[in-house]
Design goal:
The structure holds two protein chains of two kinds. In chain A, strand 5 (143-148), helix 6 and strand 6 form a beta-alpha-beta unit. Chain A has nine helices and eight strands. In chain A, the strands form two sheets. A five-stranded mixed β-sheet of chain A has the order 4-5-6-7-8, with helices on one face. In chain A, strands 2-1-3 form a three-stranded parallel β-sheet. In chain A, helix 3 runs antiparallel to helix 4 (86-100). Chain A has helices spanning 10-22, 53-67, 69-79, 86-100, 111-133, 155-165, 197-206, 212-224, 232-238; strands at 2-6, 30-34, 45-48, 137-139, 143-148, 170-175, 180-184, 191-194. Chain A folds into two domains: 2-124, no CATH class; 134-250, no CATH class. By secondary structure, chain B is of the alpha/beta class. Chain B folds into two domains: 2-340, no CATH class; 394-495, no CATH class. Chain B has helices spanning 2-7, 10-19, 93-105, 122-138, 156-163, 178-184, 190-210, 279-292, 317-331, 359-374, 379-382, 396-402, 417-420, 428-437, 445-450, 455-458, 476-495, and strands at residues 52-53, 59-60, 62-66, 111-115, 145-149, 168-170, 304-310, 335-340, 410-411, 462-463. In chain B, helix 3 crosses helix 4 (122-138) and helix 4 packs parallel to helix 5. The longest helix of chain B has 21 residues, at 190-210. The two termini of chain B are 39 Å apart. Classes of the chains: A alpha/beta, B alpha/beta. Chains A and B meet through helix 5, helix 6, helix 8 and helix 9 of A and helix 2, strand 1, strand 2, helix 3 and helix 14 of B. The structure holds iron/sulfur cluster. Iron/sulfur cluster binds at residues 71, 73-75, 78, 80-81, 117-118 of chain B. Iron/sulfur cluster (SF4) binds at residues 71, 73-75, 78, 80-81, 117-118 of chain B.
């Protein structure tokens, strides 16, 4: 078994798919994985694939032209997932897609399609949850800052949503775990950037803890529940404890 | 009291006016897509976005507040009724605007839900609310979602003006019959509620026609695969719904023959006699609107809703569901909400203070409402004068299926979309998945499971390639006992909410139920 490995970015993954495909080793004899590799397996040969923009672009183009744009979106979202087998899932899906074309999106009972849809659904759900639960605090200088810790890398799925609704505000959303941020200066386009340790700390210190609307919101939130209908389990099902970490209304 | 009012801080006011607003059910931000624009704050997503979930598990999407909790009316069930001794306060338009803008910027909310007690009189109140919304849209440039309540008996001009600033409007039905209204909301009349409701409906239709849409609101896209839904012309006895002048003042229980045509001042007079708006007269109206404005300003683009209180009066489920269906058909409402009665006041006309809210009944009504809007059912399919209440033990769809066993088992590889929807355990999404995916091969039980079909329900009603999942006899008693066993836990949980688990009665209902 040959295992093709690459770094965990879209470009790397697309390049990896290109090389794995071109190897002509037989699809059943290879597997694809993103790094870091957890447990190395015996009798497997690991081949690291370095990123190559041209190869990556050619794969992306093929997906869009030979399958469909919605298949590409599906692949993109899957690539942002935190599942360790995602790259192989994408590869198996593409094998089928290049054979059947756009119709592959309807082949829901095929295991390869089921798997990518499953991951796709998780990522979409997660990015939707963060549209709901991301909270900004107002920092000095009138910049709105949010911290999130999503499992999937959803910043680029989240940013367009906020760009549309807050075009004339300065804001940024920081992925605390990946140390990446989308930054949106008012009335311009947002950009994705990675934060150095130092920048990250400087940002944390700037936060204005005296934001008066925090208390008003918490108070509103406490008031709006009907005690005769109190239902903590239902509340927990909708907003899992894990998502509450950065939600203002759940902070003490 | 006057002094006290002045000394209240914004936080105290917010607490009082949110507390007084919380019994209103609707908090959704759905129904309209609107892009953001430079210089403004906010956009809107048709699917709606919840921002949090309160301690009662209900979604928090909008800043739900009253403009004022002062009220000259005395609805028995309401905390704000004039006969209650409470601290009264009123938000200024500026205060509301600031809260909305600052909450929205922090992504706490999707927008504003503004209701109010009746301060002085309906006109004064509506004017105050109008000023608030006008300021919010035009001075603060708020472009997010606004749901505003129409105050019963408010003048038509104000309803119209405010409708151009809001995404959704609603006026509460409160109770389904005139008698109940008289008993519990002595200052309200069906006429005072239905008249603004109809006015809003006509304005919405007129606006929709100017932008080239159908006069009636869009319904679920999947409804196009169904025939004879409640949204098409009523399938039977249309005549009974037609208004005839001689019946102008006859109020039939659970019946909304429009009775307020006597005024004669409404230019749309001729169009309100039918259960469907008369397109021609609306178009006439549209031309005159077009003459004044080049691009039409949206009027309540997310549609109109209403709500009814469940369990404060003696109406049965059949009456409530029939009323619901008529509200959809005759007023083209986008949603009808139910609110289980929560006892707040001691009053001889009301259930006693220790009454627990009828949550299971409310839940059954929501399930049935869902069946009307998405599954092609009619109120008469589910309930009848002989069987006027929902089965406590079974959800309405299972209950229906058990009474129609002759239709089952159904072969999932062949049945059409409309028939699949009738199978307990198959929802609109999974039915669509079945139809799409079986084109590329026969389906197995395993594949069905992965597609989200709830087999523990569906297994009694379907075959896959000619075989049932287990050899089960299609026998009513047996299946009923099995399904009740399945349903028991979830029914019990609804009534005992501190142990509530996610209900999976319809796989696609979960979040959507309260939108
Ligand atoms: S009109 Fe009736 S329901 Fe509305 S606030 Fe006044 S008393 Fe309450």
């Amino acid at each position: 078994m040959i295992i093709y490995t690459c770094e965990d970015t879209l470009e790397d993954m697309m390049t990896c798919i290109y090389d794995a495909w071109a190897s002509k080793l037989g699809h059943q004899n290879i597997r694809l994985m993103t790094e870091p590799i957890g447990n190395l397996e015996l009798f497997c040969e690991y081949r690291h694939v370095p990123v190559n923009t041209q190869k990556a672009e050619s794969v992306i183009r093929s997906i869009q032209n030979k399958i469909s744009f919605s298949a590409y979106q599906c692949v993109y979202r899957c690539a942002m997932s935190c599942e360790t087998n995602k790259l192989d899932v994408i590869y198996r899906f593409l094998l089928l897609g290049f054979t059947y074309g756009a119709g592959v999106m309807d082949m829901l009972q095929h295991p390869a399609v089921m798997s990518i849809f499953e991951i796709n659904r998780k990522v979409t759900n997660e990015s939707h949850l963060f549209r709901e639960f991301t909270r900004f605090i107002s920092m000095k200088g009138n910049v709105l800052t949010a911290h999130i810790e999503p499992k999937s890398d959803i910043l680029t799925m989240l940013a367009p949503h906020f760009q549309d609704r807050m075009p004339s505000e300065n804001w940024m959303i920081i992925d605390d775990n990946r140390r990446t941020a989308v930054v949106h200066p008012k009335d311009t386009d947002y950009y994705l950037t990675s934060l150095s340790q130092e920048e990250f700390h400087r940002l944390s210190n700037l936060e204005d803890t005296a934001d008066p609307y925090v208390a008003l919101w918490k108070n509103f939130f406490q008031t709006i529940g009907i005690k005769e209908r109190k239902n903590p389990t239902c509340q927990r099902n909708h907003i899992p404890l894990w998502y509450r970490k950065h939600a203002t209304e759940f902070q003490l | 009291m006057g002094d006290l009012r002045k000394s209240l801080s914004i936080g105290e006011k917010l607490e009082i006016l949110a507390d007084a607003a919380k019994y209103d059910v609707a908090c959704t931000s759905s129904g309209v897509n609107r892009k953001g624009k430079s210089g403004s704050l906010g956009n809107s997503c048709a699917a709606g976005i919840c921002h949090s979930f309160a301690s009662d598990g209900r979604c928090v999407s909008l800043l739900k507040i009253l403009q004022s909790n002062e009220c000259v009316y005395d609805c028995k069930y309401c905390l704000n009724r004039s006969s209650n001794d409470r601290i009264r306060t009123t938000f200024t338009p500026e205060e509301v605007c600031q809260l909305v803008m600052e909450f929205y910027r922090r992504n706490y909310i999707e927008g504003l839900f503004l209701s109010s007690g009746v301060v002085k009189n309906p006109t004064y109140t509506m004017e105050l609310m109008y000023r608030t919304l006008y300021m919010l849209r035009n001075q603060y440039h708020f472009n997010g979602y606004i749901h505003v309540k129409a105050i019963p008996n408010a003048p038509g001009e104000l309803i119209e003006q405010i409708g151009y600033l809001a995404d959704r409007m609603s006026i509460n039905m409160e109770l389904p019959t005139e008698d109940s209204l008289k008993k519990l909301a002595p200052h309200k009349t069906q006429n005072g509620i239905l008249k603004p409701m109809e006015q809003i409906q006509n304005r919405i239709a007129a606006y929709r026609l100017t932008i080239g849409k159908d006069a009636r609101m869009e319904r679920s896209a999947s409804n196009r695969y169904l025939s004879g839904t409640i949204f098409e012309s009523p399938r039977k006895n249309i005549a009974s719904n037609i208004y005839t002048p001689s019946r102008a003042n006859t109020q039939l229980p659970v019946s909304y023959e429009k009775t307020f045509t006597q005024s004669g001042t409404n230019p749309l007079q001729s169009s309100i006699s039918l259960s469907q708006p008369d397109i021609n007269s609306l178009q006439h109206q549209v031309t005159s609107t077009k003459a004044d404005k080049y691009s039409p300003v949206p009027f309540v683009p997310a549609g109109q809703s209403t709500q009814m209180i469940i369990g404060a009066t003696s109406e049965n489920d059949y009456q409530l569901l029939t009323t619901t269906q008529r509200l959809y058909q005759q007023f083209d409402l986008k949603r009808v909400f139910y609110s289980a009665y929560v006892p707040l006041n001691e009053d001889s006309a009301l259930p006693s203070l220790d009454t627990t809210p009828p949550l299971l009944r409310e839940h059954r009504l929501y399930q049935a409402d869902w069946l009307l809007r998405y599954y092609g059912f009619h109120a008469d399919d589910l309930l009848s004068a002989d069987k006027p209440n929902f089965n406590v033990f079974l959800d309405p769809k299972c209950d229906w299926a058990l009474r129609h066993l002759e239709l089952f088992p159904m072969e999932v590889n062949k049945a059409d979309y409309a028939d699949l929807l009738k199978v307990p355990g198959i929802g609109i999404k999974s039915a669509m998945r079945i139809v799409n995916s079986r084109r590329s091969g026969q389906l197995t039980f395993d594949a069905l499971k992965k597609m989200g079909i709830v087999l523990k329900r569906a297994k009694y009603f379907i075959t896959c390639q000619g075989k049932m999942m287990y050899s089960i006899r299609i026998q009513e008693d047996f299946i009923t006992r099995q399904l009740i066993g399945e349903d028991y836990k979830s029914s019990w949980d609804v009534e005992h909410p501190t142990t509530y688990k996610q209900l999976s009665l319809f796989d696609d209902m979960k979040k959507g139920a309260f939108q």
